[in-house]
Design brief:
mainly beta, about 55% strand, 11 strands, 7-stranded mixed beta sheet, 4-stranded antiparallel beta sheet
C-alpha cells in the first residue's frame, strides 16, 4: 500500500520558519509530481505548492509565493517544503500529495501534519 509520511510540523511564532518533509514508500513516485496542500479549520483543502519529478515545473499558490520553497530529494520520492516568514493565516494541517497517473484529480495523500503560527 502506498504511503506518504510527513514530518516537521509544529508551533512557531509569526515571522519564523519551519521545514516540512514527506517521503513516499515507493520509489515509483520518483516519476510523479509531488506537492503540498493545506486545510485550515473550517475551510476547504487548498493547493500550496507542487514540483514535477524533473524539477522543470514548479507551482505555488499566490499566498505563499516568495515565502515558501518546494524541493525534491535526490531520490525523487521525497518532497520538502521550506516555509519562511510564516503568518498566523498559514496555520493549517499540511498534507503531502503525489499525483496519480500524472493527474492531480485524485492524488495520493499523506496523513497530514499540523502547523500552528502564533501572532
Amino acid at each position: 500500500q502506498v504511503q506518504l509520511v510527513e514530518s516537521g510540523g509544529g508551533l512557531v511564532q509569526a515571522g519564523g520558519s519551519l521545514r516540512l518533509s514527506c517521503a513516499a514508500s515507493e520509489r515509483t513516485f520518483s516519476t510523479s509530481a509531488m506537492g503540498w496542500f493545506r486545510q485550515a479549520s473550517g475551510k476547504e483543502r487548498e493547493f500550496v505548492a507542487s514540483r514535477s519529478a524533473s524539477g522543470r515545473s514548479t507551482s505555488y499558490a499566490d499566498s505563499v509565493k516568495g515565502r515558501f520553497t518546494i524541493s525534491r530529494g535526490n531520490a525523487k520520492n521525497t518532497v520538502d517544503l521550506q516555509m519562511n516568514s510564516l503568518k498566523p493565516e498559514d496555520t493549517a494541517v499540511y498534507y503531502c500529495a503525489a499525483a496519480k497517473f500524472g493527474s492531480w484529480t485524485d492524488p495520493y495523500w499523506g496523513q497530514g501534519t499540523q502547523v500552528t503560527v502564533s501572532s
